[in-house]
Write a structure and sequence with these properties.
The chain has 260 residues and is α/β, with parallel strands linked by helices. The chain has 8 helices and 9 strands. 31% of the residues are buried.
């Protein structure tokens, strides 16, 4: 469907089944986006993907590159198998690695033609919600996709997770509605920046709260152990602040994605 803003949302399915839970999640996101945007679903199983080799044509990668270039938002969906990204999607990432970014003289990836596009990632797993929350079964899947996509300069919008999929035939109405909401919002994503100012503001308040907590904890410690000189007070402050910072960074980089 052609949207008034002419936004293109491309779904990329990296699962073995075209009608499984992963595919249903992707289709639900595209359904939500279709109200105001062009949508298309690409099944990676329909392509014979292989890495580029010098002077050898690679028609399937060329076709995928053209679709990815034309899209404003990418929605990548792949199940989590054995605690990691499915082989179908991983093969795509491996084969497309040389195209998603350009590499400088020392082999560093530099964002290029896909920079500032947006993306949504989707995965599902057999593990239950509590198990996934505590052990991070789906962490590796998201980290692999994030590393691949941010290498090209893409900006992340959202993650979607479904757990306990063993024997599941269809997604729940609640998850269907969530996916459609994500798709609708993704189709209206206009900004072309990486929210740098927003992150600086978040960082400011994070540091302000940590400093306040550190001072409160240090005041409590001082009731038990007198801190009568500058270096003792400074040393305790640094240690407490570091512990709090490590906990918060762990939460935001490891724990805080929508595992359930």
């Amino acid at each position: 469907m052609m949207g008034v803003e002419n936004v293109k949302v491309l779904g990329i399915l990296g699962a073995h089944r075209a009608d499984g839970v992963t595919a249903q999640l992707l289709q639900a996101v595209l359904k939500g986006a279709a109200a105001s945007a062009d949508t298309e679903l690409v099944n990676l199983n329909d392509y014979e993907l292989r890495p580029d080799h010098d002077s050898q044509p690679n028609a399937d990668l060329d076709a995928l590159e053209a679709k990815l270039m034309a899209a404003d938002v990418w929605v990548l969906a792949a199940p989590t198998y054995l605690g990691s990204l499915s082989g179908v999607m991983k093969n795509f990432c491996d084969c497309f690695r040389g195209r998603i970014a350009r590499f400088n003289s020392v082999g560093e990836a530099v964002p290029d033609r896909f920079k500032n596009k947006h993306y949504v990632t989707i995965t599902d797993c057999y593990a239950g919600g509590i198990e996934n929350y505590l052990t991070g079964v789906t962490d590796a899947t998201f980290k692999t996709l994030d590393k691949f996509l941010t290498m090209g300069g893409l900006i992340k919008l959202r993650e979607i997770v479904v757990t306990k999929t063993w024997g599941m035939q269809t997604i729940t109405a609640a998850k269907q509605a969530e996916c459609e909401r994500v798709g609708a919002r993704a189709a209206h994503k206009k900004e072309r920046d990486d929210s740098t100012m927003k992150r600086y503001i978040q960082l400011f308040f994070m540091i302000a709260v940590m400093a306040l907590l550190t001072m409160g904890i240090e005041a409590g410690i001082q009731q038990l152990i007198p801190l009568n000189n500058f270096w003792a007070y400074y040393g305790v402050f640094v240690v407490v602040f570091y512990v709090l910072l490590a906990m918060i960074l762990h939460f935001f980089t490891v724990v805080k994605h929508r595992r359930r």
